[in-house]
Amino acid sequence: MRTATRVAAAVGAAALAIALPIPASAQQTPTAAEKAERIKYMAEPPPLPADFPVPSGSDPDTPYSLVSNCIGSLNQGTTDLKNKPWGQTQLRFDELHQFATGKDVLVAVIDTGVRAHPFFGGRVQPGGDFVIKDKQGMEDCDGHGTEVAGIIAANPPATSDIGFRGIAPEARILSIRQSSGNYKGKRVTAARPEGEDLPAGTLETLAKAVVLAADQGARVINMSVDNCRAVAEGPITNAERQLQAALRYAYEQKDVVLVASAGNTGEKGCPDQRNGVDPYKPTHIVTPPWFADYVISVAAMSRNGDPATFSVQGPWVTVAAPGTDIISLDPATNGLANLQVLANGDQTSIQGTSFAAPYVAGLAALIRQRFPNLKAPEVVNRIKVTASHPAAPDGRDNLVGHGMINPIGALTTLIPSEQGVADDKALDVKAALPAPQIKNWAPTQVALIGAAGGVLLLLLTLFVVHTVRRTRTGTQREARGSA
């Protein structure tokens, strides 16, 4: 997660055509040996024991104090961002909202908190706070959570000429603050048993936040928070087990659609490169995306249609969504933002898989409104099946998963399995070729021999006739000479 801050000049959004989705190929279920191989190389996590306890709690893990000023704005009221972000054009928001708006669907944003920006129209509610408990998730000193929530549910007044909208502009937001770079507290680590000052946010508190959101009735949870570590550091940790248990609880018992960002290169321990060349032997794992049995992991796309250069790849990536040149809510003002300031003070456009994930979380909210009887696995399947698949085996790869999401397709496609129609099965059909035809060459041979004999007889006759004629001609000449 980058420290985010604020608005400068507007960025023009180019209209990009959506590629029509192709039918998703049936995913081949790995054999027991293949699955064991993937677990061995940590392309998949090991199964969670059935009796592993579900983490619980809502208190910060240690006292935290504000060590840096809360985020400010570069925009002093002099710059308006009127244009639509390219992602809205790409995903066809103008047509999308005739099918669903996410009305009354509760989406939990587990992040740096969410400020009650006026463009939310009072649809943000407190859910909990693992940094400063009394704030209940309604403070955002880092700016990240407000921007993420804006991509999901912002809805500027219809009377304004602002082009920006959230993908689910009538969804409700449940804000749970789980992390912050501006708050620090003394936590015990393996390297520092006596404790060291670290930013707020751990896998343990993320696990508790997931359970807290699920128990408060969230239908979708967005987690634009990642932890990345090298595979070489060892097998699954207890903290990762806790997160795995929380995700399983939310997905299987509470019927929650879980969405996470795929991770950015060079951040939170992720490598500077994509993540190794072998699809099933990653050099690093990213959580929560690693737990792909429960989580939709979202890669970032750039406006030219290519995967964003910073998007971490892995066998857990599910789909992709716009993740560059982002416009969203400014957490420090009542306006919009399209810039962020990095730790070194440089300004850059807002980008990251953190901002691709909320497009998918918002899409899940739209699906849950339009198809209220669908269970979480069916919502996930609808998102995957209708995506614009890459040209790869089974219609997915490790970089963009099943491809760029297609929201209109996700809201309008008829999915046979939802109607009780079983999936097509592969048939072991043998090639029914005609039996070889044995040619009887005898008539041909007789004909060829007869023809050859006739030709030979003709040639012999011509030779005899020619010889007789020559003999006769010679005799006549001799007779005339004697006379």
Automatic annotation (TrEMBL):
Annotated Peptidase S8/S53 domain residues: 102-403
Residues that span the membrane, as ranges: 446-468
First and last residue of the signal peptide: 1-26
Subcellular localization, as worded in the UniProt entry: Cell membrane
An annotated GO BP: proteolysis
InterPro entries, per database record: Peptidase_S8/S53_dom, Peptidase_S8/S53_dom_sf, Peptidase_S8_Asp-AS, Peptidase_S8_His-AS, Peptidase_S8_Ser-AS, Peptidase_S8_subtilisin-like, Peptidase_S8_subtilisin-rel, T7SS_pept_S8A_mycosin
Keywords of this entry: Cell membrane, Hydrolase, Membrane, Protease, Serine protease, Signal, Transmembrane, Transmembrane helix
Membrane topology: Single-pass membrane protein
Listed SUPFAM superfamilies: Subtilisin-like
Pfam short name (any one): Peptidase_S8
Major location (coarse): membrane
Family designation: Belongs to the peptidase S8 family.
Name under which the protein is recorded: Membrane-anchored mycosin MYCP
Organism: Actinokineospora terrae
